[in-house]
């Protein structure tokens, strides 16, 4: 029973990190891939930040889920902290793009600025993802239950296929010419991660009630 | 403790998504599409259910929370399909970037599914812990007030008073966070 419980705890952490990966997959398509065509026509150095940090976040999460170790934990924590900071910077950058400055705070109070493009609250989603990644990845290097879950979790081939799709999408993302394939691979990866998360939850509930 | 943290995280996640969707759908689609109201209702519902669990953890509130999470997952998946459909998706266009980018953002609704999945995690994993761990009274009061505010937001969103609904959600998030902070502070004081 204890063995089953420990596996459940490890599996719960794996599920949380996989949900975070799914979330970052969505953000990758919206925030990183979405910025590439904008950058191609209208260069802005700050717009490059999510294009860099979101693929790095995905790679750090994949590394933590495939090979939990001290190195992958430090990498995950560092990248997630940077991602959260990028999200905060993005919030203020989007506000500034909509005409809010320190000397002109009026639009902020009217609320109208939040309904304009680019949406100022969108980058805050990266902050939320960063918080989830930091929380989920805390202590994975010393968590034997998590390592056991990584080795013995349900339908492992499905999440590995999803990670492969994500890595392929990241490799294709820098060029505008291959952006379509990048998007298609990201969508496939997100679909696989969603199926995996649902299967994992059902497995978790069934194993929990069995113990 | 971990289970309650995940429920709180779900409330925060759903709050951020609800604010986003209430503002975005207001300018983008609501006048022309009644289905666009679904995420505007499922978001506040999930926040309300999450704060109810934190205030009064019992079988009924946990059941309501689980149902709200399921609704959120369903709304997320259905929303993704709706957004895809509005991009005139054809198999031959699957590798064209314009199919996947632009408005409405095809994968954005899936964030509701992620919020629902995170909420379902403590229900599937630590249901017993959710039932036994009770917050201290000041924290429970804050959580109950936050649940009430999100219920008001749900009502306002239902009658399309979207800006007041956003205001109610913001108040719910602030009061709910105050509850979480109070809970932690009390636990430390009692130690």
The poorly predicted ranges of chain B are: none
Large-scale geometry of chain B: elongated
Number of strands of chain B: 0
**Assembly of the depicted chains:** heterodimer
Explain this structure to me?
- The complex is a heterodimer of chains A (211) and B (191).
- Chain A is mainly α and 211 residues long.
- Chain A contains 9 helices and no strands.
- Residues 1-8 of chain A have low confidence and may be disordered.
- Chain B has helices at 2-28, 37-55, 59-85, 97-100, 110-125, 127-132, 137-158, 162-190.
- In chain B, helix 2 (37-55) runs antiparallel to helix 7 and helix 3 packs antiparallel against helix 5.
- Chain B is elongated, with a radius of gyration of 18 Å.
- Chain B has 191 residues and is mainly alpha-helical.
- Chain B is built from 8 helices and no strands.
- The A-B interface holds A 8-9, 11-12, 15-16, 19, 22-23, 25-26, 29-30, 33-34, 37, 111, 114-115, 119, 121-122, 124-125, 128, 131-132, 135, 176, 179-184, 186-187, 190, 194, 197-198, 201-202, 204-205, 208 and B 5-6, 9, 12-13, 16, 19-20, 23-24, 26-27, 73, 77, 94-97, 99-101, 105-108, 110-111, 113-114, 117-118, 120-121, 123-127, 163, 166.
What is the fold's blueprint, element by element?
The complex is a heterodimer of chains A (211) and B (191).
Chain A: H1 2-33, H2 35-41, H3 48-66, H4 70-97, H5 106-110, H6 124-137, H7 144-152, H8 156-172, H9 179-210
Chain B: H1 2-28, H2 37-55, H3 59-85, H4 97-100, H5 110-125, H6 127-132, H7 137-158, H8 162-190
Helix pairs in contact in B: 1-2, 1-5, 1-8, 2-3, 2-7, 3-5, 7-8
Could you give a quick summary of the protein structure above?
The complex is a heterodimer of chains A (211) and B (191). Chain A has 211 residues and is an all-alpha fold.
List keywords for this structure.
heterodimer; A: 211 residues; mainly alpha; 9 helices; disordered N terminus; B: 191 residues; 8 helices; 79% helix
């Amino acid at each position: 029973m204890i063995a089953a419980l420990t596996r459940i705890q490890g599996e719960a952490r794996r599920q949380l990190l996989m949900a975070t990966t799914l979330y970052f997959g969505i953000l990758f398509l919206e925030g990183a891939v979405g910025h590439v065509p904008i950058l191609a026509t209208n260069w802005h150095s700050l717009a490059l930040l999510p294009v860099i940090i979101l693929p790095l976040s995905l790679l750090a999460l994949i590394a933590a889920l495939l090979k939990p170790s001290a190195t992958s934990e430090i990498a995950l924590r560092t990248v997630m902290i940077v991602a959260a900071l990028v999200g905060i910077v993005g919030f203020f950058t989007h506000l500034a793009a909509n005409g809010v400055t320190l000397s002109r705070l009026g639009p902020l109070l009217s609320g109208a600025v939040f309904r304009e493009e680019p949406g100022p609250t969108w980058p805050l989603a990266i902050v939320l993802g960063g918080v989830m990644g930091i929380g989920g990845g805390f202590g994975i290097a010393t968590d034997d239950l998590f390592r056991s879950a990584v080795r013995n979790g349900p339908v492992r081939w499905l999440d590995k296929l999803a990670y492969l799709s994500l890595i392929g999408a990241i490799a294709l993302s820098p060029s505008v010419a291959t952006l379509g394939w990048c998007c298609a691979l990201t969508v496939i990866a997100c679909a696989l991660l969603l199926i995996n998360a649902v299967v994992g939850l059902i497995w978790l509930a069934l194993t929990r009630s069995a113990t | 403790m971990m289970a309650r943290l995940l429920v709180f995280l779900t409330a925060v996640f759903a709050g951020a998504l609800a604010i986003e969707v209430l503002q975005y759908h207001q300018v983008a689609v609501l006048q022309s599409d009644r289905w666009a109201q679904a995420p505007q209702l499922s978001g506040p519902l999930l926040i309300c259910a999450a704060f109810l669990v934190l205030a009064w953890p019992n079988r009924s509130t946990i059941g309501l929370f689980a149902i709200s999470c399921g609704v959120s997952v369903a709304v997320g998946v259905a929303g993704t399909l709706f957004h895809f459909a509005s991009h005139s998706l054809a198999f031959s266009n699957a590798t064209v970037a314009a199919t996947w980018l632009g408005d409405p953002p095809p994968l954005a609704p899936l964030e509701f599914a992620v919020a629902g999945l995170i909420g379902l995690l403590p229900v599937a994993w630590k249901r017993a812990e959710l039932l036994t761990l009770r917050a201290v009274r000041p924290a429970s009061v804050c959580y109950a007030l936050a649940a009430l505010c999100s219920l008001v937001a749900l009502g306002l969103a239902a009658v399309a008073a979207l800006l007041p609904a956003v205001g109610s959600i913001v108040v719910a998030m602030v009061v709910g966070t105050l509850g979480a902070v109070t809970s932690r502070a009390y636990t430390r004081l009692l130690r």
